[in-house]
Amino acid sequence: MKNIYVLDTNVLLQDPYALFSFKDHDVIIPAVVLEELDGKKKNMDELGKNAREVARILDKLRDKGPLHKGITVSKNSHLRVELNHSSYQAVKETLPLATNDNRIIALALNLQTEQNTYDEPKRVIVVSKDALVRIKSEAFGIEAEDFLFDRVIAHDDLFKGYRQLDVDPQLLERFYQLGDVKTRDVGVEGAEPNTFFILKNTVKPSVSGLAKVSEDGRMLAPLRFEREHIWGVKPRNVQQKMAVELLLDPSIALITLAGKAGTGKTLLSIAAGLYQTEDLARYNKLLVARPVVPMGKDIGYLPGEKEEKLRPWMQPIYDNLEYLFNTNKQEELDHILAGMGSIQVEALTYIRGRSLPGQFIIIDEAQNLTKHEVKTILTRVGENSKIVLVGDPEQIDHPYLDAYNNGLNVRD
Questions:
Q1: What is the 3-state secondary structure (H, E, C) of the chain?
Q2: Is the pLDDT of residue 399 over 80?
Q3: Burial per residue of 154-169, b for 16 or more beta-carbon CB atoms within 10 angstroms, e otherwise
Q4: For burial by CB atoms within 10 Å, which of 20, 154, 237, 285 has the most?
Q5: Strand 386-391 vs strand 123-127: parallel, antiparallel, or unpaired?
Q6: How crowded is residue 139: how many other Cβ atoms within 10 Å of its Cβ?
Q7: For 111-143, how does the pLDDT look when each residue is reduced to its tens digit (9 = 90+)?
Q8: What tens digit of pLDDT does each residue of 45-73 get?
Q9: Are the CB atoms for 283 and 360 separated by under 8 Å?
Q10: Are 359 and 286 a contacting pair, CB within 8 Å?
Q11: Which CATH number fits domain 3-145: 3.40.190.10, 3.40.50.1010, 3.60.150.10, 3.40.50.150?
Q12: Dihedral of the CA atoms 131, 155, 387, 253 (nearest 10)?
């Protein structure tokens, strides 16, 4: 049976091609949604870009016929910009304030009332990223769903990059002495390259080893870059040891480090970048960038030149640099950075159109980026560069992202 899906504005702002995600069903775009998109189209950010993309898509679909009368999108799917069913009377007593969200709910309720007069009524479903819209819709007896088609992970089990494995004491001893344990010997044949395994002694669980799957996936090898410290920073737990191993391996060009605040993700990444840029000369420059997304209320316009304007946004990066360089004053750090010339702290606003060869690139707070923005950044990475995406999926400040659809969690 066909359904009628009424789309909220935030669905289209998140994914302009959501229009085509409801195969074999009818899609309704309320007129108020077009008004909200029109108010966003001048924004010079991801939301503005998506609003303009929706406008282009709808304009192209006009070739198939008037959108307010409905057009066929695919074999069994239809799209209509709904101008009727906009009466607010059905919800006015309960929701006296005629906000755009409430008008969408009213439209869906009117559609459902009309469908109930038919012999074979269609289900009317409101699709919204806003939990409150879904709650209010269900309160009026209208089905409501989140838009999950854009999820980059299907459930809460985000790939950690490591697993625990119980092994015989003899095999663990062999691993320590020879380091040539095959993945098939421990039943993990086919494990993804560079996956870590914590090898636990089955007799003495307190005895363990840390191994990484080789590039061909056949061997469990000991860590190659296990060091006492990097620029004064020493790994304090097994996860930080894994991070250092990946950060110092020149054969791995892309790394994602996801973890809670205070786990040392950014500090380890910057220390590894400084070590490979300044000490090993493996890269020509260390570039640290982060999106300009405020937590809470925006601080508005800032005075000064570009560097002065960006300083408050980039201060978490400078805090880590001050720790690594053991400085207490901003002037001291600025003098050091000016003298070195190989360290650049930048906002992602200015990365489009650039080419970044031979650089160690760190993207901090990557959980506030969409998957499209992450792809844009990755296309900027040039030859002999390494890029590290750092963030915490539980600390998202972007209004249209969550732990399931942010760019940090993208795996493909």
A1: CCEEEEECHHHHHHCHHHHHCCCCCEEEEEHHHHHHHHHHCCCCCHHHHHHHHHHHHHHHHHHHCCCCCCEECCCCCEEEEECCCCCCHHHHCCCCCCCHHHHHHHHHHHHHHHHCCCCCCCEEEEECCCHHHHHHHHHCCCEEECCCCCCCCCCCCCCCCEEEEEECHHHHHHHHHCCCEEHHHHCCCCCCCCCEEEEEECCCCCCEEEEEECCCCCEEEECCCCCCCECCECCCCHHHHHHHHHHCCCCCCEEEEECCCCCCHHHHHHHHHHHHHHHCCCCCEEEEEECCCCCCCCCCCCCCCHHHHHHHHHHHHHHHHHHHHCCCCHHHHHHHHHHHCCEEEEEHHHCCCCCECCEEEEECCHHHCEHHHHHHHHCCECCCCEEEEEECCCCCCCCCCCCCCEHHHCCC
A2: no
A3: eeeeeeebbeebebee
A4: 285
A5: unpaired
A6: 13
A7: 999 999 998 899 999 999 999 999 999 999 999
A8: 778 889 999 999 999 999 999 999 999 88
A9: yes
A10: yes
A11: 3.40.50.1010
A12: -160
Q: Which amino acid is at 278?
A: E
Please list, in sequence order, all residues whose beta carbon lies within 8 angstroms of the beta carbon of residue 66, skipping any fewer than 6 positions away: none
Instruction: Determine the average pLDDT of the residues in 9-34.
Output: 91
Residue 106's identity, in one-letter code, is: A
Give the Cα separation of 128 and 253 in Å (integer).
37
Dihedral Cα 204, 207, 209, 210, nearest 10 deg: 110
**And the tokens for 103?**
């008008």
User: What is the structure's pLDDT at 299?
Assistant: 47
Sign of CA dihedral 370, 372, 373, 377: positive
The set of residues, in sequence order, having a beta carbon less than 8 Å from that of 285 and lying 6+ positions away, is 277, 342, 343, 344, 358, 359, 360
Query: Of the candidates 194, 116, 110, which has an alpha carbon nearest to the alpha carbon of residue 160?
Result: 194
pTM for this predicted structure:
0.72
What is the CATH number assigned to the segment(s) 225-409? 3.40.50.300
Task: Give the CATH number of domain 152-222; options: 1.10.10, 1.10.287, 2.30.130, 3.30.70.
Answer: 2.30.130
Please state the rounded mean pLDDT for residues 264-268.
Answer: 93
Instruction: Supply 401's token pair.
Output: 């992202």
Domain 152-222 and domain 225-409 have a common topology = no
